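Example 3.
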Amino acid sequence: GAGVSQSPRYKVAKRGQDVALRCDPISGHVSLFWYQQALGQGPEFLTYFQNEAQLDKSGLPSDRFFAERPEGSVSTLKIQRTQQEDSAVYLCASSPRQATPDKEAFFGQGTRLTVV
Amino acid sequence: DAKTTQPNSMESNEEEPVHLPCNHSTISGTDYIHWYRQLPSQGPEYVIHGLTSNVNNRMASLAIAEDRKSSTLILHRATLRDAAVYYCIEGTSYDKVIFGPGTSLSVIP
């Protein structure tokens, strides 16, 4: 497809379970971002990749959150030992440019994670 | 943290123009102003961006104040499909987009 694809669209996890969320960015896009969006809030930045390099992970809320993009295309956000406060929509975005201010980011539809 | 301020919510009648304001009083000279919107159950989508001059595209117009401390997103004829949360964002020299709470726009038929 032409857009950013995320899977699964919905995920229910039991508290303590590990989850992996996948993002397929637009082909050729250099930059990739992960965001967390709680209900009724704006998206919160989690982490940023430029190709395979994770240049910024300042938004990851704890060491239970881990992201990778080993070949500079597909990315996976992993959450270990999920807790109820991890329930949110996780958004992935990609951008064709790197470190330029006139950027446009393309977002996927997100993965809604519910921890029960 | 987001450096822009917007009203929490606005209403518009269908087929009327909508002016969505944003204050970005600490914007630096090289930061772009970006607008995204998020329809229900969707990811955010890019609307428009600008630096100093007013900008027009097929979705909207962006009017930027001369001192660049504020801007207004203009939807020329609101439709029901325009009901969304609209985010005004200062673009940093770094790539990441920092969202605030945005303005929730309701369109009344």
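The first strand of chain A starts at residue 5 and ends at 7. Chain A has a mean pLDDT of 92.
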